[in-house]
């Protein structure tokens, strides 16, 4: 049986987590950003992106990590901005950032494109990024560990609650399922001379439920389900829709995730296939669902 | 007692590891690169960079990861190229690459530098990178897992052996100490519904010893030691110098590693402090030690 939802576990995780650095500054920036975009009547989406790391040591050298380049979240951010949304981009430090995918291509030893072409690509990327930030449409907030991710998501969600239906959560980050509780953690780097190692991991409580029930219950909420085994993917995506009470679940299979995804909603399943990329039609589809959700009294 | 060195463990790891993808192409590129630089009489350094991940599942979604942005290796590559070396850059996919540090700065929401300044920085970075590749001075080889890292290091080291004393290894990658042997691994993503998880980890055999004894015994070899506990750092760095029989160990402490490092050699200890950065004087110092090593009959 699946471990059931316990508000106690959630409280315990937050209680024992290390204090968030710069919380005051982050909170101030968030409030300003949300307030301004709310006044302008913009829809606002919080996009989470990248893996989350669960430290094994307090002075962390080793951690348990979930696979995620952060590409899905970064590219989707570009399309949500294009679609008129303001975006809070909550991303794992050193994972992909919006407008950066072209940059990576400029540093490939591929002799087919000239230096001049590469420089033009980059100019365009820097300009688009800069404009979004300066016009107050894009706010980036970074995290490293699962503790920071959850604390920041709570902070953002509670602040976005005032937007009610105009708020969307697009939870593309690959959140750790397992972690070592802070209080059970070694202070320093675990020494390999002690020989083989056994790690005891606790389950990370499913925060989407708390987000839906407590932090921002009026918002439109999209979660992601990634599996490597295609035979269980759709079953698990449908279960997630009900269990977490979200508006859409994007089902991905690891090897085909850049070719197609299937969006599960209460109305059924919609297969979204790659155009230039998968993110463009996916964001378009979700924008429409969000519009219907807002218009539905 | 520290688990002692067993050639058997090394053989076992290589025997059970999944086959390296594209090995034939990589091998061909390597041979061409090394042969050409050897003919030109260039010194050649293999720089390893970034963390290594140890998968928990064969279709990997989760892995155990060592902290490393890859900055040390990426920036050192720039200085080794400046110093006239050819560089094989063996790096973790998505970790820092040479000439990219300025790029990251262009995507910071910092209003102090203009878009034009940012674009000029990037132009300069793309051009430097492009030149190094086109002139055949820089070869980049990427890896993801600890298995790929070790297989590639072995391939590179065996090929570099022909350079004898003109070869250097600058082993800045944060190599995993623990891993799940391939044969003990689950096929698919471990399901969180089963509840808390216990992971049994085996020790990764210390490959530096094999590199020094078998793969490239004539090369100049620099290893790195990172600790979070400053009270044991120097003791461990000195032990490493003798245990792995390397020519220099660069001792770093996690919190001060961008301010200073201490290089331990048979001649004693040398503290290297930040100038523009730590890497510039560090590479300068090691280049001199390498020159002495080559000239010493």
UniProtKB/TrEMBL annotation, chains A, B:
It comes from the Eukaryota. SUPFAM superfamilies: CoaB-like. Residues 159-267 form the DNA/pantothenate metabolism flavoprotein C-terminal domain. GO terms for biological process: coenzyme A biosynthetic process. InterPro entries: CoaB-like_sf, DNA/pantothenate-metab_flavo_C. GO terms for molecular function: catalytic activity. Coiled coil: none annotated. Belongs to the PPC synthetase family. PANTHER family: CORNICHON-RELATED. This is DNA/pantothenate metabolism flavoprotein C-terminal domain-containing protein. It comes from Adiantum capillus-veneris.
């Amino acid at each position: 049986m699946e471990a059931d939802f316990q508000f106690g576990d959630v409280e315990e995780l937050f209680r024992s987590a290390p204090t968030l650095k710069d919380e005051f500054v982050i909170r101030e920036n968030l409030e300003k950003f949300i307030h301004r975009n709310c006044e302008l009547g913009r829809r606002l989406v919080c996009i989470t992106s990248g893996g989350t790391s669960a430290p094994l040591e307090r002075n962390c050298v080793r951690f348990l990590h979930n696979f995620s380049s952060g590409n899905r979240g970064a590219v989707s951010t570009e399309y949500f901005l294009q679609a008129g949304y303001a975006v809070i981009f909550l991303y794992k430090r050193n994972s992909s950032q919006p407008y950066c995918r072209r940059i990576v291509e400029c540093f490939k030893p591929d002799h087919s494109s000239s230096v001049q072409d590469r420089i033009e690509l980059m100019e365009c990327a820097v300009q688009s990024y800069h404009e979004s930030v300066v016009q107050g449409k894009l706010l980036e907030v970074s995290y490293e560990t699962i503790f920071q991710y959850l604390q920041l998501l709570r902070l953002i969600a509670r602040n976005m609650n005032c937007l009610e239906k105009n708020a969307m959560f697009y939870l593309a980050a690959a959140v750790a399922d397992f972690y070592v509780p802070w209080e059970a953690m070694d202070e320093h780097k675990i020494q390999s001379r002690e020989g083989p190692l056994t790690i005891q991991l606790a389950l990370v409580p499913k925060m989407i439920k708390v987000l839906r029930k407590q932090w921002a219950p009026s918002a439109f909420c999209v979660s992601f389900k990634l599996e490597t085994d295609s035979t269980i993917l759709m079953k698990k995506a449908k279960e997630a829709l009900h269990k977490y009470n979200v508006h859409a679940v994007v089902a991905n299979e690891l090897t085909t995730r850049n070719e197609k995804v299937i969006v599960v909603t209460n109305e059924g399943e919609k297969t979204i296939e790659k155009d230039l990329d998968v993110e463009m039609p996916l964001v378009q589809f979700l924008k429409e669902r969000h519009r219907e959700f807002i218009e539905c009294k």
